[in-house]
Amino acid sequence: MLIPFELFAMLVLANGAPVVVAKLLKGHWALSVDGGRTWRDGRPVFGHSKTWRGLAAGSLSCALFSLVAGLGFLFGAAFGLLALIGDLISSFVKRRLGRPSSSRALGLDQIPEALLPMLLALFWLPLSLLDGLLIVALFTLSNIYFSPILYRVGIRRHPH
């Protein structure tokens, strides 16, 4: 069954497409999701690196991959959007903890963006809970270990 591999690939796309598109487009269409607003604590809601362009890139890349993989455009779009909502939740929590934008928080940076879309996949697809949890764990570990490599080759702006 290829579904676990496809879901892992979609998590990588949702996480990586915004980075690639940001590199290609530089500052174009980089309107931040929070519009530069701050929360009650005076800190940014999400931070300047969370953009509408990134949400669109991650969701659309997952939707197109999912369509080609036979899982459907709608599933892919929802999966990608949930991954990026998980990323926004992580950023929100990190800002409340006083962590700067793009700072590293092991687990918090990976688990919400993998777990939220995996919950959708568990209800939408013939996927076992064990497979879903293994995909979340694999994504978390691969993100932790491969991000520094992507930084060294110039793909990521930060080593995490």
From TrEMBL:
Tagged with keyword Cell inner membrane: no
- Supply the PANTHER family for this chain: CDP-ARCHAEOL SYNTHASE
Q: Which residues cross the membrane?
A: 63-85, 106-127, 133-151
Please spell out the taxonomic lineage of the organism that makes this protein.
Bacteria, Pseudomonadati, Pseudomonadota, Gammaproteobacteria, Pseudomonadales
Q: Which InterPro entries match?
A: CarS
Hydrolase found in the keyword field? no
Which Pfam families does UniProt cross-reference here? CarS-like
Q: Which UniProt keywords apply?
A: Membrane, Transmembrane, Transmembrane helix
Name of the protein in question: CDP-diglyceride synthetase
Signal peptide extent: none
